[in-house]
Amino acid sequence: MGEGLDSNYDKVTIAIGISGLLLFSALGVGLYVLTMDDTVEIDTDWDDDGVLNIEDSCSEGETGWTSSIATDYDGDGCNDQLEDPDDDNDGMPDNLDNCPKGFMEWSILTIDIDQDGCRDIDEDVDDDNDGVNDDEDLYPLDPLEWADSDSDSYPDNSDAFPNDATEWSDYDDDGTGDNSDVFPYDGTEWADHDGDGTADNADLDDDNDGTPDTIDVDDFRDAAIVLSIDSIIIFQDMDFEDITEMYLCIYLNGESIDCTYYQSAFFVNSYYDIQTNVLTELSFDYTLDLDETQRYHSITVEAYDDDALFDDEIDINPDPDEDALEYIFDSVTMFDNLSIYSDGREDSNGDDGALNISIQPFDMASQSIFDFYWNFDSNRYHLEKVLNYTTYSYYRSLDHSIDWSNAENYDDIIPQYARFATPDAPYVQELALELKNLSIQNGYTTNMEIAEFIYSFVGAIPYQYDLDSDGNTTEKPKYPIEMLFENGGDCEDASTLYISLVESLGYDAALMLGQVKSSEDDEWGGHAWAVINMPAVSGEGYYGEGEKSSVFFYFVETTGYYDGSSSIGQNPWYMIDYATFYDVGE
Questions:
Q1: Which of 219, 438, 544, 545 has the least C-beta neighbours within 10 A?
Q2: Mean pLDDT, rounded, for 142-160
Q3: Which pLDDT does position 38 carry in this prediction?
Q4: Does domain 223-364 have CATH number 2.60.40.150?
Q5: Looking at the predicted structure, is the pLDDT value of residue 478 above 90?
Q6: Contacts of 199 (CB under 8 A, 6+ apart)
Q7: Domain spans of the chain?
Q8: Does residue 247 have a pLDDT over 80?
Q9: CATH assignment of 369-583?
Q10: Mean pLDDT throughout 333-350?
Q11: Dihedral over Cα of 317, 300, 231, 558: its sign
Q12: pTM of the predicted model over 0.85
């Protein structure tokens, strides 16, 4: 053989000294037929770019240039500017490649999620090409997401509520998130405020307070207040005495709520002795369920000095034309606790005093747990009771009127009062059984002891002296659950509550109405009380009527229980007349 192939030259000279024909491929760039003794020069870099034809992807391409990293980034023999469509040979055309001169060694595992020609692992600062750099992108491989503003693990663009961590979807597109939407598949409804199964837009009474939304000043709240009479000071001697026999009368929207006569164990009215110029703490609390058809509610408190002939009103209002404290409460806007001080000295009219009251607004519908405290046999008892607002609202919505127009005597009117006794109501039966079990657990197991234990419970519920108890048109008896919910009631309310409880346990009880007086000099007044049949018991009472004319029922003065002095069979009144019997259990 002659000279060999020298890779330092782009042409090769080959001498052949062998007879015959030889087919020869010079480095794979052409087929030559050689005869004996021929000498051939072979061109290994046709375009003279410095890249051998065998390695040159553009071996017959542009001339007049030399391959270098500046002109031929991937060294493939193609001029980057004039003929190479993929300078870094990564498979992504330069016109689509965000890194046209990037890494050239791409393994099969290399990821380029956005197919932009830049390796995600080391040269792409925005892997999903969403315009947010990876170091700021919570979802660097998702071109549709990059943030989670409320940190609820639902990216913002997919989150219907990107600023609310509790919501992320709204199936029915009603603007209320599915987690909060009681009706997530109904675009016209989203809430059921009272939980009655009827959506608010279709519900005619959204808060289930018994007042239709069309006349309810606040559809989503059953406005109520606790009115507290906190303290009083009287600045001048009344009737030349430094002790004022004081009582208060409280009105809501012109209707009597209470008069604070102190009632002794024998129900003889007496009064609170107030020393002149001494601040006296008081403790009168009234739970008042406000009229839902009214926004503004007038609260009036009158203070009196009791006299034998004429009670003097104490001036506790700075207005020279008014003596009583007067306040207007707005049930739509007033939600914070209020303290009101009213000083009568500002008008210089005399008989001055100053009264401090407080008002605590609340939503009656939110009340469910009630605490009751009472004394029995020198021990203190407590019962935590859950009461259902819907039940309360139902009974409150019933007709409470008492029609005296055609009544000639108590026989004609007593059935109207007796209807408020509800021994068959489930909540009454449940409460009665709890009280019975509590009595037995504490060792009071006889029928008499259980009945008196329940008597002590009812008698401890605040008695609200009703100026209208003589039967005028403002009289409004309460069903038992109303007395429990509102923590107060007068004589007929306490009587029907007690009768309901004991009747539900199988006792035989009845309601009575009549006229009573607490002393010889006292005036007659209308009154209601309970009676109960209790064998082998002594005391005062009445025989029944009709089939029960031979059954004796013992007196129960349910308006107040005084531990150590009250008992079944004890009649605390000086005199009773027109006593009228009605058997509730008939």
A1: 545
A2: 84
A3: 57
A4: yes
A5: yes
A6: 182, 183, 186, 188, 189, 190, 191, 192
A7: 1-44, 191-220, 223-364, 369-583
A8: yes
A9: 3.10.620
A10: 90
A11: positive
A12: no
